[in-house]
Amino acid sequence: MNTSNRFGHLQTPPEGPFRFIALDVETASRSAGSICQIGLCFVSDAGTMQTYSVLIDPEEPFAPFNSELHGISAETVREAPTFPTVYVALFDLLNSHSLVQHSTFDEKAMTAACARYDLPMLTSHWTNSVKVARQAWPALKGAGGHGLANLKTYLDLAFHHHDAGEDARAAACVILKAEETTGVRLSHLKTKRQLDLPI
Q: What pLDDT, on a 0 to 100 scale, did the predictor assign at position 5?
């Protein structure tokens, strides 16, 4: 089965607009720009989620540690597109929505990959779901922390860690559950927030 779609993710992005898009990447090595999978979770105003993932040929060797972590290897991406091909296809969609990431690694990886291939950077607003989780569940500090693995247990989330599509969905769930816990909806995450800005 195709590793990028082993969890039933969409193989083409859905039609928008969306309230926000959660983004997660997996990398081939310690090099931030060595993206080998991108996962996206599209969240509607009603809170429904659609998840998409795509494998990417990082055009560099895989580190054994990384492959063991996410299960993606040179063989897995043998016929996969390169980052520029995938990025260009997703650029308008990503650049017109608020983006959510769990930690800041994903934004750094996307920025590094864009710099590597001389591609335009995303100008979207990024929300770090770790910070949102810290505000919603402060008691977790020192009690496992606010990483996805601990939040999976604490919030009873169902996802397969270290798959980009699954982790993107988990980050989206963290946002929605935090809003539910605090009773406060993050006002900057709203459909067409950036689409409505004057050109």
A: 62
Q: How confident is the model at residue 42 (pLDDT cuts 50, 70, 90)?
A: very high
Q: Is 81 helix (H, G, I), strand (E, B) or coil?
A: coil
For domain 3-182, the CATH architecture is 2-Layer Sandwich (3.30)
pLDDT tens readout for residues 161-183: 889 999 999 999 999 999 999 99
**Residues paired with 57 in a beta bridge:** 82
CB of 36 closer than 8 Å to CB of 28: yes
Residue 35: in which H helix or E strand, if any? Answer: strand 35-43
Per-residue tokens: 120: 């335009």
* Count of Cβ atoms closer than 10 Å to residue 115 Cβ: 12
Q: Which helix (H) or strand (E) holds 116?
A: helix 105-117
pTM to 2 decimals? 0.91
Cα of 163 vs its chain's centroid, Å: 10
In order of 62, 68, 181, 195, the CA distances from 98 in angstroms are 31, 32, 21, 10
* 3-state DSSP percent of the chain in helix, strand and coil, to 5: 35, 15, 45
How is residue 130 written in tokens? 């770790």
The tokens for 169 are: 């969905």
